[in-house]
Design goal:
Belongs to the MIP/aquaporin (TC 1.A.8) family. Its main location: membrane. By secondary structure, the chain is mainly α. It is built from 11 helices and no strands. The longest helix has 28 residues. About 45% of the residues are buried.
Length: about 325
């Protein structure tokens, strides 16, 4: 009987066909093919991703997309025409998705480190410090990720402040804040379900917990207002002021804004007992407090942040970034 032939033992006199290597010439992507829109209120963009007054489409965009141009007028900012823009609704939805993910991931960290406050002699410094590091990472990464798409506001504080500075239109402000609140609530309830479903698991969240027996309402309001003003002052100067475009560039801006947010959380968290840090994001706290069935001093997160936005608006118009910019426009 002949031995079965192994196909691997077969020898051929012909050389195997050479592997064909494809050579392609790369070319830059045409900017017109990228799905993006000009938006002057883009964090990290320093108002450079907007249509200038020398553009022939400037006057038309003043009416249709007022927050896409530099130095818009209040008439355009308050117009409701943008509600018909489907792209604006999609961007608002992305803001909600971003905050949903933020609440979930940061909530996992705060839940896992909550017991450290009594486990070491450092007290709340250790868990709040960890939360501040996470805050820095999340804020920085989300600005890089969503900045070119939605502007990476992810907080009613930033959205309302940019509206008062005429960098965000009224429809965008309403949609962004609505979806941010929805995203915060959805993320918090998913977090609660992932941790066992008990509301008590989300009570001690850095930035969203105040003990009324140790911290009076007036002190919580002062802490939140000044902390929010601190964040706004730095976020506008580092991420929205065109005069800083040559100082450090767009690549460094998100890191600096992230540091500002982390400093605010850490400073507030170690300031006094019963206070686990500054919120500076009412939508995030709305979600966590709704899921934990505890709304103690939640009004402070909204009124304090809105007060900071109004104060900052006066500062912004006192020294506007453009020479021809006036508050009455």
């Amino acid at each position: 009987m002949d031995k079965a032939l192994d196909p691997f033992d077969l020898q051929t006199s012909e050389d195997p066909a050479p592997i064909r290597r494809w050579r392609t010439e790369s070319a830059p992507i045409n900017p017109s093919h990228i799905n993006t829109q000009p938006f002057v209120g883009r964090i990290g963009g320093n108002q450079l991703h907007a249509v200038s007054q020398s553009d022939p489409e400037y006057e038309k965009l003043q009416e249709t997309h007022p927050d896409a141009v530099q130095s818009p007028k209040w008439k355009g900012i308050l117009s409701l025409r943008a509600f018909r823009d489907v792209h604006l609704w999609r961007n608002a939805c992305l803001e909600g998705v971003g905050l949903c993910l933020w609440v979930f991931m940061a909530g996992l960290v705060s839940h896992g480190t909550s017991s450290l406050s009594s486990a070491t002699a450092l007290g709340p410094i250790l868990p709040v410090g960890i939360a501040a590091v996470v805050q820095f990472c999340i804020v920085t990464l989300f600005i890089f990720n969503l900045g070119p798409v939605t502007g990476a506001h992810l907080s009613p504080l930033i959205t309302f402040a940019t509206f008062l500075a005429k960098l965000t239109s009224l429809p965008r402000m309403i949609l962004y804040i609505t979806f941010q609140c929805l995203g915060g609530v959805i993320g918090a309830y998913i977090l609660r379900a992932a941790l066992g479903g008990e509301p008590s698991t989300l009570i001690f969240s850095p930035g969203c917990y105040v003990d009324p027996t140790e911290v009076p309402a007036s002190q919580a309001f002062a802490l939140e207002t000044m902390g929010a003003l601190f964040v706004l002052f730095l976020a506008f100067g580092l991420g929205l002021d065109p005069r800083n475009q040559g100082s450090f560039g767009a690549a460094l801006g998100p890191f600096l804004v992230g540091i500002a947010a982390a400093l605010a959380l850490f400073a507030g968290g170690i300031a006094r007992p019963g206070y686990l840090g500054l919120s500076c994001n009412p939508a995030r706290c709305l979600g966590l407090m709704a899921a934990s069935h505890r709304f103690t001093y939640h009004w402070v997160h909204w009124i304090g942040d809105l007060t900071a936005c109004v104060v900052h608006a006066f500062i912004y118009y006192a020294v506007p970034p453009f020479c021809n910019q006036r508050i009455q426009d």
